[in-house]
Amino acid sequence: MTSATAASVRIATTATTTTTATTTAGPTTTTISDSLAPAGPATPPSSGFRTAFAALGQAQFRYYVIGVLITSTGSWVQRIAQDWLVLTLTNSPTAVGITTMCQFLPTLVLGLGGGVIADRFPKRAVLSVTMTTMGLLAGVLAVLTLSGNVQVWHVDVVAVLLGMTIAVDNPTRQSFVTELAPAHQLRSAVSMVSSTFQLGAMVGPAVSGLLISGVGSGYAFALNGVSYIGALIALYRIRRGTSAHRDGRARELRPAIRYVRDTVTVRWPVALVGVIGMFTLSLPVTLASFAKSVFQSGSAGYGLLSSSLALGSMMGAVLAARQPRAPRLRALVGFAAALATAELVCALAPTIETFVPLLVVLGASALSFITTAQSMVQLSTPPGLRGRVLGVYLLVFLGSGAVGGPLVGWVIDSFGARAGLTLAGTCSAVAAAVLASHLARTGHLRVRLEFPARPAEMVSIVGPLEAVDRPHRLPQ
Fold first, then answer.
1. Is 34 left (phi over 0), alpha (psi -120 to 50) or beta?
2. What are the CA-CA distances from residue 448 to residues 20, 21, 22, 441, 461 (Å)?
3. pTM for this structure?
4. Which of 162, 201, 244, 476 has the fewest Cβ atoms nearer than 10 Å?
5. Per-domain residue ranges for the chain?
6. Beta pairing class for 446-450 and 18-23
7. CATH topology (fold) of 49-243+256-442
8. Helix, strand or coil, per DSSP, at residue 19
9. d(CA 100, CA 408)
10. What is the pLDDT of residues 251-282, one digit of tens each?
């Protein structure tokens, strides 16, 4: 130990500069090695589009992105057709919310098990099974609709089965990203997947609106079913054997739950997405009501609103990817506050002409928040735990959507679409304020930027002394 007037805590990461946090704890200097950080070569931070698209330089990752684009476009074609079909059959936003709950509810039951499967079995094989299942479910819904025999309970049953499949598919798909791109490009890879998904979310609703108004919802379901053929072809182009080491204890859930609880850069993102996701995941329900009841724009208007939201979402994902450094909690607070503001302003938009551009801002804020939260979770988690930790993350995120769907539907039924969006904005604002208050209480630090004498000594601070991840305990 060296004498000093303050305690300095340096935490080894893959950053390229040194950030020293100084507190008034006493004359102690402590260096903590972050052995849980993802391994990978250090690269100088840069910003701009080169950083945002760096992961596309990996051939295996490009095949993966092609598959994501195909499935996300088809899935959004089905999602819009599904919501519109239920709304047409029942004329009730609450019924649409119940269908949303049916799709997300299985995550509450199976989400953690999905993470275990992601860590225990080859991800390529798991994704083959889940994508085949989702394609077959879309085909069943297409046959029921085109034959004229579809009923709301049919849609709800298919939504439950789809949700069960998604509970396994999501943690597997998200953790598979880390096996296809090197650690120093992981932020780019996560953001590129989000951007690709949102590109599908932008194209899908527009295609779905055209199909619904032109030939009916049944053909939208059929198109989604066929799209999985192309996605499976792209998946099989990824070479067999691309897989990270699988821990023999991968069936255990307690280490993942303990890690989420004890790691500040995982705990807070999970908590925030739980609150905000409860209402953000129900935005399709809200937009359907805006199109039908507020602006009287019909299915074509619903497709326009959904595509506008997706356009903003894609912009937000790219914006998040361009950030040169690892995400921080203060950035998460900023994006959550921006999302809350956008939701509250959108709720006041008087016409569809003003609502559409505001939706672009809302989408950008939402995806910047989601991408930052997900990047923090993935970058803070060791590979052997990543599938299970992502299972916890998705359990909270999608499970909150299962709770929020009927709630938002009831609010819209009782008080109107504007009230539903106002509720979403208010809850997002409260969640951002709580984390901001926590950071204000624990952030009494003086930060100084240094350049290391040796490249191997690349460090950054993750928070104040008391906020250091608990697995890295300071000596007493």
1. beta
2. 5, 7, 8, 20, 10
3. 0.64
4. 476
5. 49-243+256-442
6. antiparallel
7. Growth Hormone; Chain: A; (1.20.1250)
8. strand
9. 11
10. 567 788 888 888 888 888 888 888 888 877 77
